[in-house]
Structures are given as structure tokens and as C-alpha cells.
Amino acid sequence: MASAIRRFFYRAYAPKNLLMTNTVTMVSLLGLGDYIQQRFQGDKWDWRRSVRFAAIGFVIGPMNHQWYKYLDSRVVGKRLKLVVAKKVAADFLISPVFASTFIAGVAMLEGKSVSVALKEYKSKFFHVLALDFCVWPPTQAINFAFVPASCRVLFISIVTLFHNCFMSYIKHNELSWY
């Protein structure tokens, strides 16, 4: 049994299968994160909502995969702390692209127009940015310093499971700053 699991992970995380593995992982954990949020709030499970969350993973998963490949190829050096700091900074700067893709993408999957989806993103931008600021810099510092490149999207996907619970809350609730 253990050897079968090891073979599965070896194949799944082989370079030729990594894009598919990263995408499937992200799709699965996005849907699961929304399901957990719904159950946590005591709501009856809206499986269509969870499917929409999962479906955006078909965009976010490949985006993450390509982003990490790009960072690993462009930000290199001998001093680990400096490389990690540069990658964390770059990742934080790109964060609004991922967040807008997520919020606007889910809104469009709900049948909203692009302009309504972008308006929704703008109204939730600072909540998403605050969440991202709390979660991603420390997560990415660990990710870039200790996680092998082939497992970065897996690591991010696990953190994303918890992050998505909060994103689901932000997405489906009207929030204010006071």
C-alpha cells in the first residue's frame, strides 16, 4: 500500500504531470474550501456554489503553476534569504491579479456580467488585500525557503484550503471596515 502511494505521488509530481496535478489539486481544494465555509456558517450545502468555486481552479491552478515556474527561473541567487525575500515581494505584488481573477471569475460563473463582477471585486478589494497580507507573506516565505519547487502548488493549495474558507466568506457577505 505504501509503495503504491509513493508511486502515485512520484508520477503525479513528475515534471510532465505537474501542471495537471497542480490544477486538479487547486480545483479540489477550492471546492472543498467553499463547502467547509458553508458548513461552518450552518448553511445548507449549495453544491452549485461549491462547483463554481472549484471551477475557477481550472484558471487559478495553471496560473499558480506558471507563476512559480516563472519565479524559479527569474529569481535565483546564492543567498537564500535574499532570494526568498525577492520571491515573497514579487508574489505579494502579483496577489491582486490572482484575487481579481478569483472574485470576478466566480461572479461571472454566477452569471454576472464582467462589469458587475469587477465592481464586486472593487468593493471587496481591501478585505481580500488584508486577508492576503496576513496569509501570503509568511506562507510564501516558508514555501520558497523550504518546499521543493515541484511541491509548491501543493503546499499553497493546502494553505489555500483555509484561505478559501475566508475568501468564500468575503465573496458571499457584505462587509464594512467599521
List the helices and strands and how they pair.
Layout: H1 2-12, H2 18-40, H3 47-74, H4 80-109, H5 114-146, H6 152-171
Transmembrane segments: 88-109, 141-162
Membrane topology: Multi-pass membrane protein
InterPro entries: Mpv17_PMP22
Notes on the structure:
The chain has 178 residues and is mostly helical. It has one domain. It has 6 helices and no strands. Helix 3 packs antiparallel against helix 4. The longest helix is centred in the last third of the chain and has 33 residues. The chain is globular and about 45 Å long. The model has no long low-confidence stretch (mean pLDDT 88).
Task: Tell me the total number of β-strands.
Answer: 0
- In the residues, how many domains can be counted? 1
Share of helical residues:
over 70%
Structural class: mainly alpha
The SSE order reads: HHHHHH
Q: Please give the count of helices.
A: 6
Give the terminus-to-terminus CA distance: 53 Å
Ranges where pLDDT stays below 50 over 5 or more residues in a row are none
What is the mean predicted local confidence, pLDDT?
Answer: 88
Report the C-alpha radius of gyration, rounded.
Answer: 17 Å
Strand % is under 5%
Q: What is the approximate shape?
A: globular
| Major pleated sheet | none
Protein name: Mpv17-like protein
InterPro entries: Mpv17_PMP22
Membrane topology: Multi-pass membrane protein
Subcellular location: Membrane
Structure described in brief:
The protein has 178 residues and is an all-alpha fold.
Features:
0% strand; mainly alpha; 178 residues
